Amino acid sequence: MTKMTGRKALFESLKLQGVEYIFGNPGTSESPIMHELQFHPEFKYVLVFQEGVAIGMADAYSRATGKPAFVNLHIETGLGNAVSLMHNAREGGSQIVLSAGNLDIREYDRGRTDLVEMVEQFTKFSGEATHPDQVFGLINRAFHEAATPPTGPSFVSFSANALDEEGSYEFFSPSPITYGNRPSNNAITDAIQTLKNAKHPAFIVGDRISQSSAWKEIVELSDLSGAAVYASSYSEMNFPNDHPNYKGEIRLGYPEGKQIMQKHDVVFAVGKLSTGYWMFSNPSPSFFQPKTKFVHIDVDSSNLGSYLKTDIPILSDPKTALEEITNGLSEVIDGEYKESASLRTKQYSIDKSKATEDWKIRLSQKYENDPISAERLMADASSVIPTDSIIVNDAVTSGNALMNSFPFNKPGSLYGGRGGALGWGMGGALGIQLANPDKKVIAFCGDGSALMTIQGLLTASKENIPITYIVCNNSLYRVLKVNMNFYRENVLNLKDDNEKYMGMEFGNRIDIHTIAKGMNVNSWRIDDPKDIKPRLVEAINSNKPSLLDVTIDGTL
Ligand SMILES: Cc1ncc(C[n+]2csc(CCOP(=O)(O)OP(=O)(O)O)c2C)c(N)n1
Ligand SMILES: [Mg+2]
Fold this sequence. Notes:
Blueprint lengths: L1 E4 H11 L4 E4 L6 H7 L6 E4 L3 H15 L3 E5 L1 H18 L3 E7 L12 H5 L5 E5 L4 H14 L6 E6 H5 L1 E4 L15 H12 L4 E5 L2 H4 L3 H11 L2 E4 L14 E4 L5 H7 L4 E5 L22 E6 L13 E4 L2 H15 L2 H32 L7 H11 L5 E5 L4 H7 L8 E3 L7 H12 L5 E6 H6 L3 H7 L5 E6 L4 H14 L20 H7 L3 E5 L5 H10 L4 E6 L5
Parallel strand pairs: 2-3, 2-4, 4-5, 5-7, 6-7, 9-10, 9-12, 10-11, 12-13, 13-14, 15-16, 15-17, 17-18, 18-20, 19-20
Antiparallel strand pairs: 1-8
Bound molecules: thiamine diphosphate (TPP) and magnesium ion.
The site of thiamine diphosphate has 19 residues, from helix 17 and helix 19.
């Protein structure tokens, strides 16, 4: 047994977990941690000026490195600011270990907050060490829970006494984590048979494809079966968006999503499905034809068969399951099957060319618009951004133009927020850049989203993290207007154009480039579309944090 203070044991535990960065904002209750930090130069403390930035950063860093990210915030007051983006981390299963100091356990009756209760519903595991002996075990457990499938955020807090008093420890290194749960043979045989009998198969992919590195496997199976591929989530490159079979994102809960699904007799889904009807009333319990065979692959049993009628649930690492299905299918199909699969792919190729043509027409119609169209911004940006850059997508309604302008066909080329909380991108870009110091990181953010966590710019300049931010400044929450129209038309059955939009416009243009300057970030305001390309090249080549505040058209 080794004896030492709880605060020293905390750093020993973090070292064993291979932690490199601590994303944080301290307070007095974290004094033991901040005091001990000076003796551990092997950790880099990245100071944030708003807690949401730390969560966005940790979320993205953990996704880009594939390992847990550690965050330290200040007791209930700091945690409160973090909860919004912890929702995204829980939705996306991000490997975050969030921590905070708490009052001495003896202050239990003096207004001491139950921090675990406060954060628990946004985590996979939460606990507080109230005795120094618990520190190592708690850290070990929190990292293990965060990193094992299904991954997800953890929370740990430390009573002041647990950090300042001496405890006894038997340290050991964390166990290796294997992600490759094998599927049941019967389920695989049934899935192969189902796909073999399919006339119009479809795949719905989620971020679990990226998480299990199953890009090659999903493309191979789609090529072999001629399946159309829809993304339930595309916050990472889950299927090449330039592949003929790729049909774009699908919103299963919406009428148009259900309509698209009507033509498919077999649907294979991978990962958690976003099925929500967002905030509208009357959600739909089903999305497919009653006769459609539904096969669902995931590492999380709670996603399988629990909310959708599922013919073949496959509890497995997607990469392994997809590989086994592809191998099995290629052994049982004949020339006739191959012929119809290739006919489907041919048709999808024609559809794709048509969609590309439509996009070009839309772009040319809007190219000279004043204010700048989102289409022009994205097209011009994509023509000068180096091809091996990483794109961060927090662009909200400009995201469609982004997806049409950039080819995403390499793993790790794109990251976006997961879950509904606004403000992910400012911190998210920082985490991606820290995880990829040799790559250019270009982050597209909606002005509304950027303003939620604009303090991220201060961290960028303080640490000289050379991201180029592009703010799509339309002076409004445009998506809320789009959704309001949908609500009025489909839920309220109103056809009247004279309805007002309340609380969605910012009034005067907010000069985000001026805010950026105040935070020591090089920035430019762009009103003339001709400035997009040269300023963007200048920003990227500066190798410093920089920002383009682009006035774009927000009309519907
Ligand atoms: C923390 C938080 N607050 C409020 C919302 C509601 N909300 C969703 S999208 C949105 C507006 C996004 O606006 P912006 O980033 O400017 O993008 P745009 O719609 O203009 O393209 C808001 C306010 C949210 N999702 N998260
Ligand atoms: Mg906006």
